[in-house]
Amino acid sequence: xxxxxxxxxxxxxxxxxxxxxxxxxxxxxxxxxxxxxxxxxxxxxxxxxxxxxxxxxxxxxxxxxxxxxxxxxxxxxxxxxxxxxxxxxxxxxxxxxxxxxxxxxxxxxxxxxxxxxxxxxxxxxxxxxxxxxxxxxxxxxxxxxxxxxxxxxxxxxxxxxxxxxxxxxxxxxxxxxxxxxxxxxxxxxxxxxxxxxxxxxxxxxxxxxxxxxxxxxxxxxxxxxxxxxxxxxxxxxxxxxxxxxxxxxxxxxxxxxxxxxxxxxxxxxxxxxxxxxxxxxxxxxxxxxxxxxxxxxxxxxxxxxxxxxxxxxxxxxxxxxxxxxxxxxxxxxxxxxxxxxxxxxxxxxxxxxxxxxxxxxxxxxxxxxxxxxxxxxxxxxxxxxxxxxxxxxxxxxxxxxxxxxxxxxxxxxxxxxxxxxxxxxxxxxxxxxxxxxxxxxxxxxxxxxxxxxxxxxxxxxxxxxxxxxxxxxxxxxxxxxxxxxxxxxxxxxxxxx
Length: 497
Hints:
Blueprint: E1 4-7, E2 12-15, E3 23-28, H1 39-57, E4 61-66, H2 73-76, H3 88-105, H4 121-133, E5 137-140, E6 143-146, E7 183-188, H5 193-199, E8 223-225, H6 227-239, E9 243-249, H7 253-268, E10 273-279, E11 282-284, E12 287-288, H8 299-306, H9 308-315, E13 324-326, H10 328-352, E14 357-358, H11 364-382, H12 387-405, E15 411-412, H13 413-429, H14 441-461, H15 465-477, E16 481-485, E17 488-492
Parallel strand pairs: 3-4, 3-9, 9-10, 11-13, 14-15
Antiparallel strand pairs: 1-2, 5-6, 6-7, 7-8, 11-12, 16-17
């Protein structure tokens, strides 16, 4: 089955055909590093990561580029706040470091590069000059604006007519623009004080005057890049004039992605991206999860509390283009699903590695169910990266493993090995790690339990059986299941990875 994706540009689900049959050029609009990354960012990151993994599974060499927007009035608004830094560059660096740590904690594949806007100002200026030369942009009072009326296909991504589009940009730009819908490619001077004030946290003493942010020399005077031109310059620098897949949040369709198309295609006369995939927003109650609204759970808090596997099980429980709700109930459901998968995997590993796993035992139901699950997983992923159905396929393997090992004296070695390998292989597509290291407080809890069990064993060896039993009872009172085996004590945490 061929991979099909839902293309926002056409509104249709289409067969995916990259320009080069062996390579995929994938660009994701990355984070504006002005606040700690939250689960809304993690949801998009994880789904882009799954896309990357599945494309590689299909045999493509994936060139994945994800940018950092490190020039923005929201970043300037954090200057002097807490220990974030004393200028825009310092604040951005602080949050980039934190973001990269969160990406690693989520078990994301590394992108080919993580370009920063501040490193690509020369390319941005070159692109703006090209647009002026081609007649699509104009200078006004040291700023440069894109003339939306000059680009006949403007609105094709968001399906809007030009006359229906309201003014873009700050109100003080209106006197400089030919058309209210024109957008800034280059802004003269530094960041406006009102814009900084709008994004500062209330009640925080920043200990400094209102900063203006970084500025660069240009043919039109000192200034800063416009937001939209940044992604065009960075993506074309690292991936060329035409992308295979451009991914971003649904809230970026207009104006950001619409403007990316206009300025890129006006500069190159080439199609900017063949497939536009948009991640739906993450709901927190009745609103989207957002840094600006302050209703978010940070990535490091979530990883620390639930661990990477539970979190990725939660985030892949819905497809990238379906809305997802964060709540205690939905997290609890993810914990239960991961627990089912992990317990079944451990049961299968224990059984397949035991002397009771036999070469000539053939469990037809087990083998057929695993093969059916593999087929279902592949069909789901080829159907627009449908992680919800793909996850269900893995859970069906857990069910058949449990049915096979419960109460049986001899096991189907080949069938169980196939089940174990399938969970490992396809679980990795969703970024799940069976039998691996835990992260967050789960790892620390494991270390503490190991220490307690070591003390318990020392008590038993010393003949202090009553104290050893007390230690076991205390662990079980905390919800930690302890089981004594011939090879020593094993345990299970109450909320495992």
